[in-house]
Amino acid sequence: MHALALFTFGLGVAFFMKSQEIMIVIASLLLGTLIGEIIDIEKRLESLGNSLQSKVKGVGGSFSEGFVTASLLFCVGSMAIMGSLQSGLSANHEVLYAKAVMDLVAALIFAAAMGLGVAMSAVPVLIYEGSLSLLASVASPYLSNAVVDEMTAVGGVLLMGLALSILEIKKIRVGNMIPGIFLPIIIMLFMK
Fold first, then answer.
1. What b/e sequence results for 68-94 when a residue is b if at least 16 CB atoms lie within 10 Å of its CB, and e otherwise?
2. pTM over 0.70
């Protein structure tokens, strides 16, 4: 897992280097984090996961528990959102490929403990990530290359933060920073 986390960090650096306007990246990260902290995206996602998990325990059976646990684990991360957006906006699938390898390792571990339900989580993951990617690809023609580059750079910083969390160097609430990915669209409108 450490090798994949280091790869994720390197990918984040490469994405960050696409920026032509560092101040847009900084402003997007600051404002996006402020919005995310006010909304407390990470806490809400965690609460959703805990709520669904408690309902599954009431149903009983490791199939349901494995299905819900794996679905949440694979869908509720910032890497799923960033990877899907990157895939749809610029046809760059590197983040999703790295995520797929990490998910495979986690799925094998969970499947050993929870059974077939873990494998079935592939369906909601496909729908979720596919929908985000499709929406991003539909929006892509309306966004300039400069906007996509700045969105990519913000996503790169988030990937670096995610890698630091995976490596347990520093727990960074990357989920609360996700709104920053979309802010270059608005900020660059005012720069024209």
1. bbbbbbbbbbbbbbbbbbbbbbbebbe
2. yes
CA distance 84 to 101: 15
pLDDT surpasses 80 at 192 = no
Which residue, 96, 110, 98, is CA-closest to 5?
A: 98
- Distance between CA 153 and CA 21 in Å, rounded? 9
Contacts of 143 (CB under 8 A, 6+ apart): 89, 151, 185
Place of tokens 């897992």: 1
Give the CA dihedral 51, 163, 20, 35, nearest 10 degrees. Answer: 30
pLDDT tens, 90-135? 899 998 998 899 899 888 987 887 788 888 888 889 998 999 999 9
pLDDT in tens, 52-76: 666 665 555 567 767 777 776 787 6
Count the domains in the chain.
Answer: 1
Cα angle 140-38-148, degrees, rounded to a multiple of 5:
15
Token pair listed for 10 = 């390197």
Determine the structural domain holding residue 109 and report its residue range. Answer: 2-190
